[in-house]
Amino acid sequence: MKGVYRQVTVIGMLLALVLPGLCVAADPLTIDTAPLLAIGTVDLPYTEQLLSASGGTSPYSWKASGILPPGLTVSSAGVVSGTPTSGGNYNFLVKVTDALSATASKQMFLNISSGRVVLPETMPSRYGNCTNCHAQPTPGAPVTTISSFPPSPSNSTEAAFTFESRPATYTVKTECSMDGELFVTCTSPITYYSLSDGSHTFMVRSIGDAGEIESPPASYSWGIYTVPLAIATDSLPNAMIGAPYGQALSATGSTPPFTWYIPPGYLPAGLSLDPATGVISGTPSSTPGHYEFVAQVTDPFNTTVMKQLSIQIVAQPLIITTESLPSGFQGAAYNQTLTASGGMMPYNWTVQSGSLPAGLSLAQSTGVISGTPSVSGSFSSTFRVTDAVNALATKSLTIVIAPLVKVPPDATYSSLQEAFNNVPNNGTIQAMATTFIENVVLNRLVAITLKGGYEPTYTSNGGVTVLQGTLTVQRGSLSIENVAIR
């Protein structure tokens, strides 16, 4: 084939032509790495984690912005590495750029654990329950003071205590007891090992040279919790737009009180988190969809764990709220609006089955049934409404159109009131060339149409409508319109 080509590639006996302007679209560039990165530990090398992406055109180049844990970096190849120097919870933005300068960004979350609980050599008595730390002993007995003890709560199965007796010159010995066991001779400092989770009480007393036993002994109570902290909530129930929502996040291990946190902007609009209780509550106002976020919880030991969760926001069920349609009259204008609730506006209305009376039509965007029916009878239709996300609802309704009833042409009446009194219910009055000067009491359902440029005036009188005025009507032009009297 003749022509000018940019490149000709021969593979075996296959001739492939790369034509000018020929372009194959790549998949959109996307960061695949989950937002919650592996937990790190202070002063320990972080397990290198490679960020991953797909789509676009390789090679990729990575960059991080925001606050990374001190000591960690993100290389251009997408490797998170280093040795963290400070504990805490960090979130930062990573951005990947492909060979054609397309970009994608994602918020990442990383927890750096302190790795251990460092206890000071002495602790003030507000930690735990230090009863009689400075005992008021039996007269003549030495006084024992517990000067250092574990924090409460503690996540260590070891407990170290230091204590002293005053005056030391009168103290023969000291005795210790753990959790109500018998007192045994002990010296300061003393350390207990392999204690179980739960509440513990340490007691110590001094015995004087004359056998005086300190009573009550000095004591200290605290709790040990070594089960690792974890977020127990695996999933959250759906939330409905406009409906109150309340769901508590839960944690296992460690010990309360817990402090909960979700980064701002990640919960659906209308929902918020109580950091003290972990309850997510409110009334959702955002659009339906799947909302992902990272929840984190911190215990009294400043241990923090994270977990990725999500909430599905759904619309309230779409329903047609119109219960019935009013009757109409043949030849009289009709106007009625169908109504719905729930779903996502805008709505779209159609007649799914059945038919409207001839002369009436349904507006798809508003649900208004309008027009002038040209036939009478009972007409049943099934109406269908769909919303912006294609949810649908249906309902069957009936419109009754009353027939046009005429006074026989050869019937004559001396007054409009007499004519009205002789018209059947739901009928219509027609008149020949006649002038009526009278008040007419309209106390039945009759459709009255006045044509020929004449407008009757009427006022309410104790629930009975009175039509007043002079009606001069040309032959055949009177049918009295749009005044339905009940």
Automatic annotation (TrEMBL):
Gene3D superfamilies: Immunoglobulins. GO terms for cellular component: membrane. Pfam families: He_PIG (PF05345). It comes from the Bacteria. GO terms for molecular function: calcium ion binding. InterPro entries: Cadherin-like_sf (IPR015919), Ig-like_fold (IPR013783), Pectin_lyase_fold/virulence (IPR011050). This is Ig domain-containing protein.
